[in-house]
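BUG: 3D viewer hangs when loading the predicted structure for this chain

Environment: internal workstation, default settings.
Expected: structure renders.
Actual: progress bar stalls at 90%.

Input used:
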Amino acid sequence: MSTSSNANSLISRDIERVAPELVAAAAKFQAAILADVAGRRGTLHGRVKPLSPNMKVAGPAVTVEVRPGDNLAIHAALAIAQPGDVIVVDGKGDQSCALIGEIMAAQAHATGIAGLVLDGAVRDSHELANGVFPVFSAGLNPCGPTKGVAGRVNKPISAGGATVNPGDLIVGDADGVVVIPRDQVAAVIELAQKKLDAETKRIEAIRNGDTRAAWLEKELRAVGMLADDEAL
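Structure tokens produced before the viewer hung:
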């Protein structure tokens, strides 16, 4: 049986992923740092949160679009995803039925998938939150999904208001999830290191008594909150 993709297929198997060494480098940074240097865009809506604040994930996206309440396409994604991938699901933010639970998370973990990010609901939340496999979701619902509606796998999606293309970098932590376009990852990592160095230096200065932001008065004057000859 052929495993090749064609232009009309609803499942694309062959995608170009962000390089593993770039994933490892990006994983060292908070999602917030990456989001800032990526232009303060590309973050999923705050409804998409980790089931435990200790959960972190980083890896190339395998994208899934489903009809609300149906998870057939997620099963297809689980079957073709590679170790290290992050399955990202556009579930339309629907929370009327869970899209995955403990069994599917166990399957994903056993096959080496790095994590699941769903703009939709999940169930078995106690078990998932106390496990080691990262799961991010928009909510919870004990109702199970159907498996009878066609979806799409490895096509461009919008999840939590963010555009996600197959192979893009996904980084998630306690603050939420950020998407970095695959061709921008190397540049974003370089900027992230510079920002981290600057923030580390600033925090140290604050601890040493420098508690006034040097840029504050200039910006207050720029928006008319302070006169040119006025100071705080």
